[in-house]
Amino acid sequence: MHKSTVFLAFIVSLVLVSPSTSDDVNPTVKSDANPAVQSDTKPSTAIKSDVVANYRLPRDLIPMHYDLTIFTDVKEPEFKFDGIVTIHLICIQKTRDLVLHMNNLTLAHDSITRLVKQGIANPSEELIPVQPVSHKYDAENEIYSATFETPFITNQEYTVEIAFNGVLNEGLSGFYRSSYTNRATNDTEWLATTQFESIDARRAFPCFDEPAMKSTFTISMGHPKHLTSISNMPLERSMDIPSKPDWVLNVFQKSVPMSTYLVAFIISNFTYRESKPSKDFNDVKFRTWARKEVIDQVDFAAESGPEFLNFFERYFNIRYPLPKQDMVAIPDFSAGAMENWGLITYRESSLLYDNVRSSIHNEYSIANTVAHELAHQWFGNLVTMKWWTDLWLNEGFATYMAAQALDDKYNKPGSKHSWKLLDGEALSNILLIFPLDSLSSSHPVSVPIGNPSEISQIFDAISYRKGSFLIRMMNKFLSPKVFQQGVSKYLDKYSYGNAEQDDLWASLTEAGHRAKILPKDLTVKRIMDSWTLQTGYPVVDVVREYGTEKNTIKFNQKRFLALPDLKRSDSSQCWWIPLTFTSSNDKLTSSKPIWLPCDQQKSELSVHDQHDIVVNDQMDLNAGLEDNDWLIINRDMNALIRVNYDDKNWDMIINQLISNHTKIPTLNRVQVIMDVMEFSKLNILKYSKAFDLMSYIHKETEYLPWRSALNTLYSMDNLLKRTGPTYEYFQAYVRNLLATQFSTQPEIRSSLEGYEERLHKTQLYSAACHFNLPECVNRVQAEYKAWKQSKSLDSYVIPADMMYLTYYVFVLSSQYPR
């Protein structure tokens, strides 16, 4: 604290009042959800309190630093912890109330002390104990408050000490216990670990548990000496505990300012592998932890992690701010992973990679998860949302940046096999977004959060996948270079602080205008508010006027809804849509967007910008497009839209696919497959149109268009099951589509080097066997029999990519007793 600060001193004993003696305590709350219930203090209803009446904490007192010490007994049957937290505060606005979060913690008698020096003239003045006039616990909102007769004074600093205890729970949240079986001894091994996002730090220690209330932390962990503890920061020193000779107290370095949900600590008997520093990397110590039996399976993650950290440092132009980075595989973990600053925790399946048994899907999933969590160290940790409404910024950016990091790792110059990860990630997002966000029950990516109990509901595909795709869309219409400049400036400006989406929009707008990428009167906020603040996505109807000199194209946008009885969308919904084009006439092909605006906002644009804006829902090409040239809107799926064309243009697209499909970009082949099948399902187009287009697929050799096609075919398969002859005709139709390409695939045990080649082989085998293509079923059955008849089952290895399929198909075949 600053030397000039004036101190007052109070020692205050606080405990909760029994429900039978006070109306201030919710009588329906179980005792294990409340602090200890005993006190001589009488609650007062005559004293008015300034305590906030809802789920948010007041901003009268702001935490600056926590000194947190916890002693943890990680063994049966105790599973308990005792702690003391010293919170250094500053008073922003005069108040008598100390209001903070806690849940499932017990406060010991005389456990709370408020300290401040009493007077300026005599800094050594004696400390005087003062009891509160009232206190209460709001169990519903998990808020503990104490009201003092003497107020906290504006601009003065205070220290509050709180002693508490709790039990390591089994709920995989807060400070909880996990276990596994030691294979060597067959004993159960216990560990204590944390999961605080979004509002569970309060289960481990009393705190101001909101993302905007950032603070520094000094964490100390006491535990038996045979165990190891780690936290967000490196170990500073270890001390013996005289009263417990078999215990140790580990004190960790003071942290950078961070939100409570990013605090983490683990007590275990895990071991680690330390990564070799990568080229041009800073001095970050990078370790990957796991139980001893599986430590050999961390090598892939331990190798990839520093590469991704290096990439993000270069991309954001900001050094990783901590001296170390740990990644830990937890046996019992509710999420895939958690981005705790400097101590990332993972579900074991999200971090461990077996060189023999793990498939290409496992490799991609682990690499993607590691990259996602490391991206959070900047987007989410260094700069954090002010409130959970902007969760999508955290998760959408981490999802998008993970794909960028993987692309950097696997698509090095001169690489023999391209992963096409960015295109694959775009398709993965679309396949989830399109069905979910076409429902009336969907929600915007930016969701106003009321009670914190609602927060968990928005950790979904809309926040992650739609958020990621919208960020990709911004990268496309601003250009990668300008987008990167805007993001880097945003992170630098708000480092160690909090921001909201408008702050990001401002940084990107400034970068876009400086580079003259955005029209002068158009801002990123104006564009992106139409995408983030409303539900759904648009379908754009494109109608060309043939036989005219102007070559006019008319556009109409409306929300796309998937259910037939809800097709009539809200006419007031509209989006700022970046239109890009590709055509059989190269003169028209361009990735520079022309903006299709919201109707009510057209008149606000200056004449200077009209060449970049579609006016009156139509555009005159004048030259460059003949009547017999096909036109595709949304080049490379740059925007989150579906596109429907007039019949003639659809027919020209179909003819091009049949004659030479490679003339149409890969992602546009993906999109026309998805769109034509969906429009047919809703009776917007005839099914004959869809099947005509799909007829080209037997010549398609790329993974992504086949993935799009199979996704629609599997959907139709589910609809047509149990329809008798119709289903049989459909299966025969699909077998005919698959036969040509399947015949080009190597045998099951043949290895392929390329990522896409391996994925394509897996998906074609899966589809061909699903639709009972005889050649596929015969191959799988032969492979399984050869494995069963081999002299050593361990030496006859079925490739991991094909192992599940081989077992699955053989179990379903008639030659295996069911």
Automatic annotation (TrEMBL):
Keywords: Aminopeptidase, Glycoprotein, GPI-anchor, Hydrolase, Lipoprotein, Membrane, Metal-binding, Metalloprotease, Protease, Signal, Signal-anchor, Transmembrane, Transmembrane helix, Zinc
Molecular function terms, GO-annotated: metalloaminopeptidase activity; peptide binding; zinc ion binding
UniProt KW Zinc keyword: yes
Binding residues for Zn(2+): 372, 376, 395
Domain Aminopeptidase N-like N-terminal positions: 63-262
GO cellular component: cytoplasm; extracellular space; plasma membrane; side of membrane
Annotated membrane topology: Lipid-anchor; GPI-anchor; Single-pass type II membrane protein
SUPFAM superfamilies per the UniProt record, alphabetical: Leukotriene A4 hydrolase N-terminal domain, Metalloproteases ('zincins'), catalytic domain
Active-site residues per Swiss-Prot or TrEMBL entry: 373
Stated family: Belongs to the peptidase M1 family.
Protein known as: Aminopeptidase
